[in-house]
Amino acid sequence: MPVPNGDNEKDIVEQLRALGYLRNPLETFFVGNISRKTSIFKTNIFVGLKVGLVGGLVLGLLIGSGAAILDRSLLHPFSQYLTLVGMLSIAYAIIACTLGLVGAVILTIVASIRKKVIPRVRLASIRAGMLGSVVTFIYLTLQWQRLKVLAGIEEFFSPANLVALVVTLGIALVIGKMVSLAVLAILCRLQGISLEEHAHPARTYTIASVLGAAVLGFFVILAATAPQTQAVPAAEYARMETGTRVVLIGLDGATHQALTQMLDKMPTLRRLAETGTLARLDKTHNRVPASVWTSIATGVTPEVHKIHKVSRYRIRGLTSSLEIDRSYAGFDEAINNILPFFGLAEEILATTSVKAIWNIAEEKDLRAGVTNWWLSSPTEEVNGFLIGDEAYYAGCADSGMKNGDVYPESLIQALAGLTLRPEDLQAEALPTISSHQQAWRLAYAADESNLRYALKALNEAAQLPELFAVSFSGLDVLEHKIAQTQAPSLSNLRLINDYYVHLDSIVARIEQRFRDQKETVFVIVAEPGLREADNDLNGFVLLSGGVCNVSSDTRAKLEAATIYGVAPTALYLLGLPKSEEMTGNVLLKAIAPSFRSLYKPRVVKSLGRKDTPSPVLDYEQQQERLDRLREMGYL
Fold first, then answer.
1. Fewer CB within 10 Å: N-end or C-end of the chain?
2. Res. 11: pLDDT tops 50
3. Which of 334, 312, 303, 350 is CA-nearest to residue 150?
4. Cβ distance 38 to 11 under 8 Å?
C-alpha cells in the first residue's frame, strides 16, 4: 500500500485508518493531520509536543494518585488531591513536551543526514512503541518503589502493589502506543517511505480504553487499600533504672582527622578520650547538616525521618509537602524546579514526625534539656527545656526572643541579656588573622551565646535533666565562610585549629557543670558536614565518664561506628530500648562490662510517632531563615 505521490492528506489518513489506527479521537489527535505540505521539522515538532502533552498528563495523574494512595492526608480535603494531580500533570507535561521537542530536533537532524528508506514502516513503529512501553514501565516501577519508601510500605503482596502493577502496565501500553503512532506519523511524512502492503489487524484495545481503565484503577486503589501512613503503635515497655545521666554534645564541622592531630592542644577532650573511647565514624551518604543531625537525634535514616535537606518545596494548595529527595528523575524536577519556576510551589523548612531521643525520654518521665539542635525551632513542649536553633538569631534582633524560640516561655526572661552579638566581641576574643575576623565573629558569638543559654537553663532548672543535648555549629559556619572567600591556605588552617582549641574550652565549661554528677556519661559526636573538598573526612564519637570510663586494658576499639548508633546508645544508658526502625546499634564496646552484665539492650517494634506534628514557622519567618542559611552556604 504505497504512499500517494500527491499532496492529498486524506489519502494518508485513509491508509492509516486501514492499518487499524485513527479509531478514536485521541489517535486522530496524534497522527490524523499529517500533511505533506508541512515541513519535516514542523511535523516532528507537532508530534513531539502532542505526545509530550498527553504523556505528561498521564504521568502526573499516575504519580499524583500514587502519592495520595500512600499518604491519605493528601485526600483530605479531596480538593487537595485534585490540586496535587493538577500541579504534577502541568509539571510533567512541561518536562515531557521538552523531551518531545528534543527528540523532534534529533529525528529531524537524523532524517536530513540519513536518507535511507525504511521499507517496513509499521514494524519500525511497533518496535519503537515496545521500547517506549518497556522504558515507561521501568520508570514508573521505580517511581512507585520510591513512593512506597516514602510511605514506609514493606509488604510485597499487598492490594496496593497488585493494582499498581496492573495500572502501571496499562499506562506503559498507553505511552508505548503513543510512541508507536508518533514514529509512524513521522515516517509517513518522509518521502520515499512505503507503508506495509497488508493492513494491520483491528486492535482489541485503544488508547482511550486503556487510559480509562487505568484511571478507574486509581480509584480502585484509593477505595480498597487501607491507609499506610499510620505508624506502628508505640510498644509498651518499662524503663530500667540505670541511674545514668547522658550529656550529648554535637560539634558540627569537626573531623576525626583534625581532632587526633589537635589533641595535644585540647586538654579536656584529650582527658575524656584517655578515660573513655574515641571512635571514627563511618562516612554517611547524605552529609547535609539538617539531615545528619536529625539522624543523630533519632537514630533513623533520612528515608525514615524524611529530612534530606534543610528545606523542601510544598505545592501551593497542599497543607503538607511531598517528602522527596533527588533520587529519581522527573519527580524531583517537577516539585523542586518546574513548579517553583512558575510560582506553583513554595520553599519551606523541613520537619519530621519521628521522635527524637528527648521525646522518647519524656514519655518515661525523664527530664530533658536541649539547646541549639538543628531544626528545633519553633520549639515543642518537652519535660524540661528546649532552646531552639533560631533562639540566638531572635536574641540578636531588636524584638528579642519570643514564644516558639524557647520552651518554656518563662525561660525567655532568664535568657534575656545573654546574647553576644558579633559586633560586641572584644579585641582579645578575635584572631590575629584579620581577613577572617568577621567570620570568626559570627561563629564565636553564636557558640558562646548558645553555651550561655544552656548553662543558664541548667542553673534555672529545679533538677538537672537526665538527658542534656547541645550542639555547636560555629566551626562549620567558619569553614563555610572561609571556603566562600578563598582557597585553603596555611593561615586558614591555623584559624581552624584555633577554633578547635576554643571548642575544647566550651566542652570544659559543660563538663564543669556536671562534674559533681558521678554517673554522667559524655557523648561527644562530630560530623564534617558539607564541603566542596575533603570528602574523605570522617566524623567521630567520644564516650567518656560514668559507666563509659573504662581502663586502657579493657577498652576495645569501636569498629563500624555510625551516626545511627548515637541515639540507641543514649537510650540504652537511660534504660530505654531502641526501635527496629533505628539502623544503628548500641555502642556496647564503649561501656563498662559491669553495666552491660546488669542491663541488656532491648529492641521494640516501634517507638511510635509524635502525637502532634512539629510546630511550623510562618512563611515570612521561614524565608528569613532560608535566606540566612543560603548566605552561610547551607543552601
1. N
2. yes
3. 303
4. no
Helix-helix angle 159-189:121-151, to 10 degrees: 150
- Residue 37 sits at φ, ψ, to 5 deg, of -80, -20
Reported as a single tens digit per residue, the pLDDT across 308-351 is 877 777 788 777 666 555 555 566 667 777 788 777 887 777 88
SS3 assignment, position 554: coil
Alpha-carbon gap, residue 520 to 541, rounded angstroms? 16
Maximum alpha-carbon separation in the chain = 100
**Dihedral (Cα; 276, 278, 282, 286), 10-degree rounding:** 90
Compute φ and ψ for 206, nearest 5 degrees.
Answer: -130, 165
> For residues 469 and 514, is the Cβ–Cβ distance under 8 A?
no
Alpha-carbon gap, residue 168 to 181, rounded angstroms: 20
Cα→Cα distances 467→86, 373, 392, 541, 571, Å: 47, 14, 22, 17, 9
* Helix or strand (DSSP H, E) at 594: helix 593-598
Cβ neighbours of 484 (radius 10 Å): 12
Angle at 338 (CA atoms; ends 334, 342), nearest 5 degrees = 140
Phi, psi of 299 (to 5 degrees): 80, 5
CB atoms within 10 A of CB 268: 19
The DSSP annotation for 245-278 comes to EEEEEEEET--HHHHHHHGGG-HHHHHHHHHSEE
Q: Which residues have CB under 8 Å from 257's CB, separation 6+? A: 537, 538
Question: Distance between CA atoms of 212 and 203, rounded to whole angstroms?
Answer: 16
| Cα–Cα distance for residue pair 30/49, rounded to 1 Å | 10
Given a contact cutoff of 8 angstroms between Cβ atoms, the answer to whether 566 and 523 are in contact is yes
What separation in angstroms does the CA of 231 have from each of 21, 32, 68, 235, 306? 49, 52, 17, 11, 14
- Taking the mean position of all CA atoms in its chain, how far away is CA 356? 17
| Cell output for 615 | 510546630
pLDDT digits (tens, 9 = 90+) for 422-439: 888 887 677 766 667 888
pTM, to two decimals:
0.74
Where helices occur in 354-473 by DSSP H, the ranges are 357-363, 391-396, 411-415, 437-460
Q: What is the DSSP string of 93-131?
A: HHHHHHHHHHHHHHHHHHHHH-----S-HHHHHHHHHHH
Give CA–CA dist 345/314, Å, rounded: 5
Indicate whether 362 pLDDT > 80: yes
- What is the grid cell recorded at 62? 499516575
Query: Nearest Cα to 283, choosing from 564, 599, 618?
Result: 564
| Residues whose CB falls within 8 Å of the CB of residue 439, separated by 6 or more in sequence, listed in order | 477, 478, 481, 482, 485
Amino acid at 602: R
Distance between CA atoms of residues 554 and 542, nearest Å: 16
Asked, as a colleague might, if the bond just before 4 is cis with ω within 30 of 0, I would say no
Cβ count within 10 A of residue 2: 9
Report the distance separating Cα 31 and Cα 101, nearest Å.
16
Q: How far apart (Å, rounded) are the C-alpha atoms in residues 221 and 148?
A: 14
Q: Amino acid identity of 318?
A: L
